[in-house]
Amino acid sequence: MLTTHINRRRFLSAAAALAGAGMLGGCAATPATDERTLQFWHLLSGGDGVTMAGLIDQVNAAHSGFEAKQTVLAWGAPYYTKLAMAGAGGRAPEVAIMHASRVPGYVPGGLLDPWDKDLLASYGVGEAQYSTPVWDKSHLGGELYSVALDAHPFIMLYNKELCAEAGVLDGNGRLQQATSPDEFLALGRELSGVSEGHGISYGYLGGGSQMWRLFYTLYCQQGATMELPQGGPAQIDEDAAVTALRFMQQLLDGEIAAAQNDEDNAIAEFATGQSAILFTGVWELPTMQEQGIDVGAATLPTIYSQPAVYADSHSFVLPRQLDPDPELREMTYAFVADLLTRSTEWAAAGHIPAYLPVTESEEYAQLEPQADYADAANHLVYDPPAWFTGSGSNFQNNFGQAVQGALMTGSDPTPAVQAVKRDLDAILAKPNPTDPEGEWSA
């Protein structure tokens, strides 16, 4: 078993380094004092937060040995700030939610404890209960550092009424799947002919995440990989990157999709029935259902050599405690395992439950349209691991700043790809501030 030797000074230096990178900035919350109270921190709000609160109530009702109490913190940097500083000060909650893509930034500084896989297996949670991409992403340095609750991939929502009018639904009422770039562009043009707005709604202006999610899907579908080794240089397949950006430019022709659009306007266009397809995350599904649209959902089609879809996962982690209570630690395992078994309800929020006994159940199979994109869990691609990547970090926004001009103007994307690589090389050339002894490479 890999052991990380740390002390209070290292805790604090790692957390401060994350703050200095523009990813963190805040202070810790009040520690738990009741040894039978299991403190649970997360960043889930809106409909997700309501669903999570209901699941917590169910688990609490089923167990007499503990009561899990949730603390909900603001999404993004404020949340990750408090979580890092709580671990640095030894005042962390028993369990917390993190995006799986952020875990590589926390392990080097000793801010997370690994899960005991044997103990977890005794509660029915292990490799056999997860898809390979999700289970692999849960590990770092051979240790299990996160237990995924879900996968939330970048998908397509589609208006069944408009798609039926365009004649692009199959015999089961599902969207026909394109198998090449040309086929998908042709599909977009057919849909634009029956839409008041555009065939496809895709907003990218002002937000690097939307650009990155589609780009990385297309990039990885070409069999390309991206590696960010500490010290550099960044390993990027520039030909595949240019190919992905050129396809995105073809989509943004003013007919298939608006040449210049932001995420909010794209969502509004689809929500008001003016477009047939929306590129978005699974979390927008409940919103569209509430709008009264007869909405379907599908994984982004494989238009290159292999299936791949960008995603992240909400995952359970064990924030580092200086003196963890053994009884509460085992109760944490029971809490997480029980909540996973009840995660069919989590699918109502659009997410794909990561726990296979749920997604392989008959109950889940009857859940439409969620079951129609459950296969995406077998083809997920997460941010390339590095201490500075992941949801809520600056990585995706920096990518967007480099490529947005090429998407807006339709100019040669090669200089944009080269700019991305230069930016990454500059970051990688600097010491990893969360790994003072240089022991880790994400």
Task: For the structure shown, list the relevant keywords.
442 residues; D-Maltodextrin-Binding Protein, domain 2; 7-stranded mixed β-sheet; 6-stranded mixed β-sheet; globular; disordered N terminus; Multiple sugar transport system substrate-binding protein; sugar transport; transport; Bact_solute-bd_prot1
Task: Please provide a written account of the structure.
The chain is built from 16 helices and 17 strands. With 442 residues, it is α+β, with helices and mostly antiparallel strands. Strand 5 (139-140) and strand 6 form a beta hairpin. Helix 1 (8-20) runs antiparallel to helix 3, helix 8 (208-221) packs across helix 9 (238-251) and helix 9 (238-251) crosses helix 15. The longest helix has 17 residues, at 46-62.
Brief digest:
This protein is an alpha+beta fold.
Structure summary, number of beta strands: 17
Proportion of residues in extended strands: 5-15%
Q: Please count the helical segments.
A: 16
Rg (CA only): 22 Å
Largest sheet: 7 strands, mixed
Q: List low-confidence stretches.
A: 1-35
Shape: globular
- Secondary structure: helix percent: 25-40%
Q: Output the structural class.
A: alpha+beta
| CATH top level assignment of the largest domain | Alpha Beta
Multimerization state:
single chain
Spell out the CATH superfamily of the largest domain. Answer: Periplasmic binding protein-like II
